[in-house]
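User: I'm new to structure prediction. If I give you an amino acid sequence, what do you actually give back? Let's try with this one:
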Amino acid sequence: MLPLKRGVSSCIKCHREAVTFIRYNGAHLCDEHFLQYVERRVKKELRQQIDLDEVKKLAVALSGGKDSSVALCILVEVLHHRPDLEIVAITVDEGIVGYRPKTIEKAVELTARLGVEHHLISFQDEVGKDMDQLARTKSDKGPCTYCGVLRRRCMNSLARKLGAEVLATGLNLDDTAQSILMNFTRGDVERLARLGPHIKVQPGLIPRIQPLRLVPENETYLYALLKGLPFSDDECPYADSALRNEYREIVNKLEDKHPGTKHSIVASYDSIRPLLMEAYPPAELGRCTCGEPTSNQKCMSCALLEEIKKMV
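Assistant: Good question. You get back a string of structure tokens that encode the predicted 3D arrangement of the chain. For your 312 residues, that looks like this:
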């Protein structure tokens, strides 16, 4: 998707000035038709991922960044006709000085604007340590490993306590294509089979859906700008060490040379996903002593925290 200078072209659906050119399908769109274009895909994804008629309470993981803010905004907009369905927002405070407080401020501002109940959960309250403390431990695991595991625990735990049947995340097309490529190249086929959106509901594990799964990151950014949504575009200070950055660069280069590559990666995965799930069905889950579901005696977050205690 490319931004346009004034007067470059007009929208393919009307005679108004286009605000963007979408390379993978050749469409010039004005602001109004671009917003509708994004919202239509989100509605389609929702229909394919979940039967919303069975949902009475939907939680949205809201970080305060552009993607989760757009996900919450669109969900509120497309589901406003459902007075029997409650939407709540969950924000995880990992405890990253100079970064997370700014994004929490944006999350609070957005939920107030949309009239959505907002809940906050922190690493410190949940596991007794914040991310800055964890990052200082002498471990061969990077900060993103600890953060990812503990953030998932916090989101699942709070969503369950709130009585939510579904948890929506702001994962976009770029995130999804990168995850597919990462797991494939590492040979982690079992994890590849477990990528969301989740189909099977397992005891204690709130199924996650991904409304923005086919919306590219640059389109969520433009959507947020056109809607005037409050969001933070600051990058996590620990993100530089993430392996995902390498795959982001690879996928973006491919997309730049061959528009539509990201969609093709996800479409290819979707075509083989039923076979992967048949070969690697979801494990039967028990309960960890902390209360979280696990396929082992201890959940991953408790196992990581025990490792840290031994290092201190």
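You can read the tokens as a compact description of the fold. Here is one thing that stands out. Residues 31-49 form the longest helix (19 residues).
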